[in-house]
Each structure stands twice: as C-alpha cells, then as structure tokens.
Amino acid sequence: MAKKIKEEVLDAKADNELNLEDNKEFSLEESFTRLEEIIGSLEEGKISLDDSFKLYKEGVGLVKDCNSKLDKVEKEIIIINEDGEIEETDGEF
C-alpha cells in the first residue's frame, strides 16, 4: 500500500505534479484502502513536507467523505419493532 503511494510521489516529482485523485469518487472500501496507503506513506516519512501536506489534505477529504457516507447509511437503517413491523429510523436509536 505505502509502496503504491511512494511510486506515485516519485512519478509526481518527475512530472512535477502529484496525482492525488482529488476528483475521483471512491466507494467506502476504496476510501479506507486509500487512507491506509496515505497513512503508511506519511508514517514512512520518506516524502517531502510539501507532498506530505498534500497527502494529509487528501486524507482529510476522504475522512469527511467517509463520515458523510456512514451518516447516510446510519439514517437508512431499518428496525423491526416488537410487532414485526418495519420502522425506518432517522439515525437515532
């Protein structure tokens, strides 16, 4: 995972442009995978401060997107009450 990001950073340095996929829409699973890659790369500490900041910003955006998706799913949870009827919740239990 961190290897992929390291390769992106090295390629970006050659191209003088970091491809952070800011405009790509990730699934929740893809977002978590990307976050793991970003964290691994930041923990290695083998990239420049500027690139680290860009990755950090991308990670913050992914976290916000994940929170939004999880909130939406939580609001759509359906609970079956004692009478066997289906009740949609508003996210409150």
From TrEMBL:
Functionally, this protein is described as follows: Bidirectionally degrades single-stranded DNA into large acid-insoluble oligonucleotides, which are then degraded further into small acid-soluble oligonucleotides.
What this protein catalyses is: Exonucleolytic cleavage in either 5'- to 3'- or 3'- to 5'-direction to yield nucleoside 5'-phosphates
Q: How would you summarize the oligomeric state and partners of this protein?
A: Heterooligomer composed of large and small subunits.
Classification via PANTHER family = EXODEOXYRIBONUCLEASE 7 SMALL SUBUNIT
Any single Pfam family the record assigns to this protein: Exonuc_VII_S
Q: Which InterPro entries match?
A: Exonuc_VII_S, Exonuc_VII_ssu_sf
Its GO biological process annotations read: DNA catabolic process
Q: What family classification does the UniProt entry report for this protein?
A: Belongs to the XseB family.
Does the keyword field hold Iron-sulfur? no
**Entry's SUPFAM superfamilies?**
XseB-like (SSF116842)
GO CC terms, sorted: cytosol; exodeoxyribonuclease VII complex
**A single MF term (Gene Ontology):** exodeoxyribonuclease VII activity
What name has this protein been given in UniProt?
Exodeoxyribonuclease 7 small subunit
Does Cytoplasm appear among the keywords?
yes
Under the heading NCBIfam families, the entry gives: xseB
UniProt keyword annotations, A-Z: Cytoplasm, Exonuclease, Hydrolase, Nuclease
Q: What is its EC number?
A: 3.1.11.6
Cited Gene3D superfamilies: Exonuclease VII, small subunit
Where in or outside the cell it occurs: the entry states: Cytoplasm
Transmembrane stretches, start-end = none
